Give the backbone structure.
Amino acid sequence: AANGITRIYADNRLGGYLMTQHLLSSGRKRILCLTAHTDGVDCALRCEGYQQALREAGRPVSTSDILYGDG
């Protein structure tokens, strides 16, 4: 392992949160969460971050704005 680093982990919840905050701050009116799997932990965490950012911005959170693809 280079420089003593053996693994890098992504914070999926924070990633979904920060991306949604970015889109909100750029004036987007409707933001959808597109995810690949209905049962994936990483995907669920990104959607949680997305929903948290919307709630904090006082925006409605609708399950119809979360769209699932086939991977």
Notes: The mean pLDDT is 89. The longest strand covers residues 33-35.
